[in-house]
Design brief:
Protein name: Probable membrane transporter protein
Organism: Neisseria arctica
Membrane topology: Multi-pass membrane protein
Order of helices and strands: HHHHHHHHH
Main location: membrane
Number of domains: 1
Pfam family, one: TauE
């Protein structure tokens, strides 16, 4: 095992920790894969390895969070099913969609999310005790399909978008929103794997060690989220948005 792969495993651990705590693990893991695996590795294989490792880390984080936090399963399960189908469709349609136009739109959305979260000091700090209405369940279904489709064709920021939606539109605290987002994010990762695995796009000699690193990080990240609570997650969410805004802005500037 060379030093580049050891560095990749460290990045995988940090990505799992970051993703479980506040989201955005792909911002670390995807560049790590492109930088530390051989340049001859097909892009589809890199993305397949990323999805497999992310799925393992998200599975660990999701299991840990939902055992400690009451999430709205009545809305989440149909929304997750819609996200699964939409994510698979998005992955199949990626060759026909103008993906290059998504980054500018996402940049605007993330700036708006940051401004809104910064301005609303109490956003995501109150624990909701009432059940979701029928209308809210349908809204959740629609958002699940929309975000699932986005994850299928592009991906970065999916968890952050979901968390913001649960806070803004369903009045959940950040801790519940983070746990709920993980449930849907887990299904979108699984949808992608139903394409990558049968088509042989995963190099298991690299994917399995990276998955173990991501899983370990996910376990610790979930503990950090539970101990830090909604106030910690609000600050972490804003820091993540700043990082993503900087990353997307840099990519657009260089393009």
């Amino acid at each position: 095992m060379d030093e580049h792969f050891i560095l990749l495993l460290i990045i995988g651990f940090l990505a799992g920790l970051m993703d479980a705590a506040v989201g955005g693990g792909g911002l670390l893991q995807i560049p790590g894969l492109f930088n530390f695996l051989p340049s001859s590795t097909p892009v589809a294989s890199l993305m397949g390895i990323n999805k497999f490792a992310s799925f393992c880390g998200t599975s660990m984080a999701t299991g840990r969070l939902v055992r400690s936090i009451a999430v709205p399963w009545k809305m989440l399960l149909p929304a997750a099913a819609a996200a699964f189908a939409a994510s698979y469709c998005g992955a199949k349609l990626i060759a026909y969609l103008p993906v290059q136009y998504i980054k500018p739109v996402m940049l605007v959305i993330m700036v708006a999310m940051f401004i809104y979260t910064f301005a609303k000091k109490d956003l995501g700090q109150t624990v909701r005790t009432t059940a979701l209405s029928r209308k809210e369940n349908y809204i959740g279904l629609g958002f699940g399909a929309l975000i699932g489709f986005y994850d299928g064709i592009f991906g970065p920021g999916t968890g952050s978008l979901l968390a913001f939606i649960f806070v803004r539109f369903f009045a959940y605290d950040f801790l519940t929103a983070n746990a709920s987002a993980k449930v849907i994010n887990l299904t979108t990762n699984l949808a992608a794997l139903t394409f990558f695995i049968p088509n042989g796009h995963i190099v298991w000699a690299w994917a399995l060690p990276l998955a173990a690193a991501n899983l370990s990080g996910g376990l610790i990240g979930a503990q950090v989220a539970l101990k830090g609570g909604s106030r910690f997650l609000r600050y972490g969410f804003m820091v993540l948005l700043v990082i993503m805004i900087g990353r997307f802005g840099w990519d657009l500037f260089n393009a």
